[in-house]
Amino acid sequence: MKRLSFFVFLFLIGCEDTREPDCGECGLEIYSSLEKSNGNYILEYNEDLAQTYTMLDATTECGWSQHLQWDTDYQYQINTDWVSLVNPASMTDEDGDAHIMFAAWEEFIGHTVTVYCGYTDLCGVHHLDSLKIQIVNEE
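and the corresponding structure tokens:
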């Protein structure tokens, strides 16, 4: 009687990256191109518009696709919804930079608004930064 033998080879291929993440260069700094006075950025409100806008910038030095969360210590009520003065989220580009829109209504003239930004890197470290924007009448 002849005996037949079969060998089965199973190859598994996956897409999971098992290397440890490199988090040594991650950080967070948020800033604006607005003029500064006494440590606060100054936003001159344009009364010809319903809102006055400016772009805020962030750098993480952590590369592409970091999800940044943004918020302010003041909000504005539109109908029944409360809205922050900054968009709630952005993503970093390949250089670790992100940009977000900040907008103030006339009611905020004379207020100093704190803007917060944060994210958690691949190593589980939470990064947080803030800046202050003083809203003034256009001179």
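(Above: one complete record from the training split.) The CA atoms of residues 95 and 106 lie 35 Å apart.
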